[in-house]
Amino acid sequence: MVIFILLIVVLLPHAVCDAQIVKCGMWNPQFVHHQYYQPGDLIIGGIVFQNMFQISRSTFNQTPQPQLSSMFVQDYQQVLALEFAVKEINENLQLLPNLTLGFSIYDSYVEARWTYHAILQLISPKDRFVPNYKCDIQGNLMAVIEELTSDVSHQVPEVLGRFKIPQMLYGSAAISINMNQAISVYQGEPNGVHQYRGILQLLLHFKWTWIGFIATDDMNLQGFFDVLFQEFSKYGICFAFLESFSSLEIEKSAMNFYDKIMNYNVNVLVFYGDIRSMPWLRWLLNTGRIGKNQKPRGKVWILTAQMELRYSTSHDDWNIQDFHGSLSFATHSNELQGFQGFLRSRIVPSSKENGFLKDFWENAFHCTFSSSGHTGRAACTGEEWLVSLPEYIYPRRITGQSYTMYNAVYAVAHALHAMYVSKSKNRAKMEEQRMKIQNQQPWQLHHFLKKVSFNNSGGDWISFDQNGELIAEFDIINRVIFPNGTIVKVRVGRLDPRAPPLEAISINEDAIVWHTFFNQTRPLSVCNDNCHPGYNKKKKEGEPFCCYDCIPCPEGKVSDKEDMADCFTCPRDQYSNKDQTSCIPKVVVFLSYEEPVGIALAICALSLQLVTALVLMLFVKHHNSPIVKINNRNLTYTLLISLLLYCFCPLLQIGPPEKVICILRQTVFSITFTMIMSAVLAKTITVVLAFTATQPGSTLKNWVEKKLTNSIILPCIMIEVVICIVWLAIAPPVPYADMDSSLGEIILECKESSSIMIFIELSYYWFLTFVSFIVAFLARKLPCAFNEAKLISFCMAVFCCVWLIYMLTLLNTNGKLTIVMDIFSELSSCVALLVFLFFPKCFIILWRPQLNSWEQLRMWKR
Question: Mind giving me the DSSP string for 10-22?
Fold first, then answer.
């Protein structure tokens, strides 16, 4: 009885399963030509793109069949990478003990309908097309690794996402996936958006601002423009043209397409496509060139990670020299231990399970097996040398896609290991746990996949971020294509997506081989020649912003870099050089004691002080002599002391201005100048009153002495003192650095802040000077002994001329020259007073003492 019950329990599920299969249909609705299956306890699914077929439209009159003459053969190395990874894992007793991994790989043919068919086939039992039906505990699908293209990038994750099956995506279209919605999706390579930001950094590094942009209509161009087009423009990069092509109308536009991209004045072309775009691009270039009978013209092609120069079975003579010197991004890869030996060991399989290798072998070596149906080809022996194939057919090094496939398989294996360890608490129940692992649902693997991290055999650390994206770098690859078709990929840089923008990209420019068209010099790609320093850009009307004219900078402005949008004004303490390419620090200028002019003026001022002091001593010594007494010696002493102080003013103007010095300059000059003018005025009026007082009956005799002097000098000085006090209270002079008056100089000076007070001060100066000159001029012919009015009139005439010339020249001078003219005027006026007013008297005292007597004075009076 017990045995009967056990038989029912064991056989009943199989009977139900077979019945359901018959009911739903055991037949396979479409013929699958390329598939590769290896059994195991757990299965990893793979959807790759190796072959592109000429597929006819379905009429639904019969079962749709692909035409079995493939147009393009892609990289078979991806299939081998998956097989190699599964082989290593099964041989590693520490990773998945008592469990074996198998795989089931299908070709998508880069067609949406075949991709969907492959997906449904993966979730069906082996050799039966019953999606999402499970008949036994072996061969459970745990994850799917998919190489996607643009038009199926949204649908595939949604289909598998309904069954919560983990999906490892890679390919150019992976950037379209909404990672927030597709919770079962993991990106096996860095997000593709990083590539295009890397392209931007690449363009900025080489200063390429004028580029052509080519895309296929199948790509989501609107998404590209929304995310990145504005970012390119923000960094000064503009597009000479935006060209797209469709595979449906490609034959009609081949020559026009070739003319546009090859004859345009742009040297850098960015191609935006997916894994199937490159064959069509090559077809366009070859067809257009043959139609024009032209040789390949040099361009720098910038390609994304999936853009590989694949082998064409129908056009194996296509010229690929267009892409010599191209730059592309590739998922970072390192050589895997034992992988090259594994590749060399592959021979033509006899098993029907591998439909990929047989087709690859026939197309790569242009041979045929007896059952293949190819005509005009030699029979395949199976002993052909893989190493004899060109690089773009059979890569010598592991490709980025194969590296991604290898890492994806190991990521699933490590997640399974983590799940196995978490359930294997008791080693004695190992077999029971094995059964439990086989019965696990794929959705239970997500918890462990999100935390996967391991070192692969290539020495790289593999892990995913919080968004399910692989944390990895991109390699920058330079393709060197030899005339015999051999392709060498040289790693010339890297792109770290997580580094700051200015540090994200690093390039070894010396390792880059450019297209022979450029004679191994870095290509330029600008709309016009760069504007040199000293010029700025002026946009051309109706042209993109990268096209401009170069105009010289306006006077006073500079540009110190190439292609500056506008010239800038130098800081106030700097000025532009002659070529207007840089700013030069201005020279600080002030009249110094260390320069010849300063020394000469200081010596002159000190010499005049000494002369004035000697004259004063001479007059004091002969104070009782008639020639000193007759012209009011107190006024003479006052005038000489004023001149002595006045000669001190030039010394205050030499040297750097300071706050105390500026105040002393103004007050000492103002007061001493007023004292001189008031003393001269008092002397002149004294002469007039002295002549009048000598007339019979005059009452002015008492005014000729001290009363007259005090009544003239003291009020004049007091008025000036009041003006100075008000000036210092309102706006005292301060040290000032004049950076604008003279080109290339910073003039240190004392700035009088109040223009009103300056006007009042100058008006008062000229009033005293004018009155003194008029009175002296009118009194010059009075018949008085030693009539000083004549001497004063000469003195004031020179005095007025000196200061009038100073005022006129002040309008056209600045800097040190202004200070020099000021000192020169002060010294000149001082010399005029000494020469015309005092030297005649000194001459009489020293060399004509006989004339210095009262008898001689009375004789002159008569």
Answer: HHHHHHHHHHHHH
